[in-house]
Structure formats: C-alpha cells, structure tokens
Amino acid sequence: MDWLERHRTPVIALLAALIVIGGAVLLYRQCALPQSVEIVISPPSPEIHVYVEGEVVSPGVYMLQDGDRVVDAIEAAGGFTADADQGAVNLAAPLRDGDRVHVYRIGDVPQKINLNTAEAWLLQSLPGIGETLAQRIIDYRNENGPFQPIEDLKKVEGIGAATFEKLKDKIAVR
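The structure assignment produced for this chain is given below.
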C-alpha cells in the first residue's frame, strides 16, 4: 500500500492516458475504417423474351417465364398456321431469354444438323467428322452448354478453319 501511496499520481496519469488512447483508437476505427455495406443480390428475372416467327398465327416477341418450352412460345403466338411443318419443331426444347423460334412452312425445312441436339451418328454424317470429333462436339456442349453461334464449333479441339468452312452451310444452332 505504501508503494501505491507514493506513486498514486503517476498511476492515475497512466490510467487516464490509457483511457484517452483507448478512446482515440476506438474513434479512429469508427471514422477511418469503412463501415459494413449491405449487398443485395437480386435473383434473375423470371421473365424471358422470345421472338417467334414463321408459320404461326401471330409472329412477334413474347414475354414468357423462365423454364418455359418452345410449346409455350408457339401457344403465345396463337399456335401453328395450317402450312406449318409441326414435325420440324422440337416443342419440348427449353427457352432462354433472347431465343428465336422459327416455324417452317411444310417443305421448307432446311436440311441442317443442329449442333446442340444431334447425336454422334448424325454428326458423323458431316464432312470431315468422324467418331472422335463427333464425341468431342458432344463433350464440348455437355461441358460448356449449347453452342451459341455456329462459329463456337471452332472451339472444339480438332476443328479448324478449313473443317469449319466445309461444315458451316450444313450446321445450325437452334
């Protein structure tokens, strides 16, 4: 106790200094450090816009729901006309925002192979595509999603500019 009596003033000064320093650090942290910011992530819009053209009653752009299929787009456009080649349309295909659905007239369906749906045997009917390249095409679309422009085919290992030139008029992405 005697020691405390002799050093009371320096101890009190030290405690006061610690309190002041602590308060200054707290104030600095509140002012100088960034405050937490709330980030709100909105889910993607459940609405998509799809362009429907060709042999439908009312061609145009239609607002549909995410997860809708080609059949829903055809219904939104009033259904098929009498001249529509209904068998050439995959009604079960899923739709994405910005898709284009074309319904051909009977007899007008182009004979192109759809890179996004063709099986290996059909891909092998293309010039320069054997069993190995057909499998690489299927593997590519399974890993990366559907081909968007047909030029995406050049991203498949083994398909260069020369092979693509032979194929470009025989392939489609729908």
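Interim note for the steering committee: The longest helix spans residues 8-32. The chain is about 35% helix and 15% strand.
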